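Lecture notes, continued. The same structure-token format from the folding unit now serves as the input rather than the output. Read the line below as a description of shape only.
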């Protein structure tokens, strides 16, 4: 260990931009055993590892599995990595590591942080390829739990309940499991075979998965609350935010998740509505987070004539992953920073022609520590567009069955106990975006785990 002086940080290899934009295949090639070991050997094994204690919402045993793979013990690294995380090969691909574990790494100041995300994904990839399996006991308890939603929070809750031998039935309104991981994150970041493999593991462990079953329509929530020992709500936050401008629901204005889901459904062999076809069109995306980067990079692959991203702050203040921004730049996306939309422009024939924006500047930090945005008067100008995609964040949907069950919400978000995830209903727990608002997959995973542990304590007294 501590070979950081002699060994430099090595990013995983990726396909050149001209090649990768021709398909939706994953762009990164993850480490071999020797490459993972060499990068893990750079870890200095801090006495107080900030990567785990401060940088990881799951509190993963990062130094421990780095040490194990550095010692060429793949099985130990695989089991340690999977002990606290419900899907490390997924989070190793999609987490904004530069803002989390790698951002908190001691070596980040001067030597280059350990490539924690790439090593994390590589350990599970290598372990599965070697035939390693996870230690699920099978269903050994008399209890059963209903999980509503198959996204990161629901997957996590189910994973840890099954690890305890508790039966789980999962209800998903879509035809594919995985929620955001399947329909919202493009294949070039996360191959869907990886998500499917996780569900195959859970089903082998005893999960009963019900697809195309929307609670509140095909499934009665009151029946779930009565017939199951506990219920976990992981319904996410899928309602896209609007800019409150005229023409925001024009036929050529898309919400980010509408666009991403339509493209993903086409890739899964289903028919895409023709209005989402951006071939040969000028696409403008509003927003600066990872979802915006997913949209611009998807539009490039879908054959758009030009793709422009408009963000009201600067590059340094973008909320998403640094690597996603740089990948977008490499792939030909143009960025306009310090711009705020003021008008969606539609001509006399009703055709979308552009978006009017104002220049902005950054002011003093607000209560959350982020610098606020000020508009520059008389700086209006137009950016030409045939398609406008709104990636401005997400809100929780309203579910009438929650109101009927008397489950408390605040601004649509579910109110839960911070320590347990329990809602105002004694048998119902919740976690992830439906409680926090739009957040990270790793945070949803942590909330799903928290609820699973609380459910175990309530049902088993353990």
């Amino acid at each position: 260990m501590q070979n950081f002086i002699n060994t430099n940080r090595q990013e995983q290899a990726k396909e050149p931009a001209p090649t990768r934009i021709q398909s939706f295949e994953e762009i990164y090639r993850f480490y071999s055993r020797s490459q993972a070991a060499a990068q893990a050997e750079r870890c200095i094994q801090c006495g107080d590892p900030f990567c785990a204690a401060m940088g990881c919402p799951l509190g993963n045993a990062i130094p421990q599995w780095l040490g194990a793979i550095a010692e060429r013990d793949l099985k130990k690294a695989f089991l340690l990595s999977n002990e606290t995380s419900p899907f490390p090969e997924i989070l190793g691909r999609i987490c904004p590591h530069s803002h989390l574990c790698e951002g908190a790494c001691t070596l980040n100041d001067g030597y280059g942080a350990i490539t924690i995300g790439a090593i994390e994904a590589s350990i599970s990839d290598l372990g599965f390829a070697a035939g390693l399996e996870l230690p699920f006991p099978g269903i050994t308890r008399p209890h059963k739990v209903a999980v509503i939603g198959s996204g990161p929070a629901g997957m996590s809750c189910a994973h840890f309940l099954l690890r305890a031998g508790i039966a789980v039935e999962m209800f998903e309104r879509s035809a594919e499991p995985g929620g955001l991981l399947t329909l919202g994150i493009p294949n070039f970041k996360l191959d869907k075979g990886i998500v499917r493999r996780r569900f195959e593991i859970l089903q082998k462990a005893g999960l009963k998965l019900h697809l195309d079953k929307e609670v509140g329509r095909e499934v009665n929530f009151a029946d779930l609350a009565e017939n199951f020992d506990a219920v976990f709500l992981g319904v996410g936050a899928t309602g896209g935010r609007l800019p409150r401008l005229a023409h925001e629901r024009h036929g050529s204005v898309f919400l980010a998740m509408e666009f991403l889901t339509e493209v993903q459904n086409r890739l899964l062999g289903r028919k895409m509505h023709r209005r989402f076809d951006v071939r040969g069109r000028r696409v403008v995306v509003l927003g600066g987070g990872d979802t915006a980067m997913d949209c611009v990079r998807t539009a490039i692959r879908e054959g758009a004539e030009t793709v422009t991203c408009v963000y009201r702050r600067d590059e340094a203040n973008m909320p998403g992953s640094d690597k996603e921004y740089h990948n977008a730049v490499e792939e030909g996306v143009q960025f306009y920073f310090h711009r705020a939309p003021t008008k969606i422009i539609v001509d006399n024939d009703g055709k979308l022609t552009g978006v009017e924006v104002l220049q902005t500047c950054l002011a003093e930090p607000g209560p959350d520590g982020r610098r606020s945005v000020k508009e520059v008067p008389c700086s209006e100008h137009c950016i030409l567009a045939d398609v406008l995609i709104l990636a401005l964040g997400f809100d929780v949907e309203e579910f009438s069955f929650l109101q009927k069950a008397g489950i408390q919400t605040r601004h649509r978000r579910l109110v839960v106990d911070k320590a347990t995830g329990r809602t105002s209903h004694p048998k119902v727990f919740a976690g992830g975006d439906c409680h926090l608002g739009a957040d990270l997959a790793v945070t949803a995973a942590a909330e799903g785990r928290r609820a699973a542990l609380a459910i175990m304590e309530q049902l088993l007294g353990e």
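Point for the exam: The chain has 18 helices and 20 strands.
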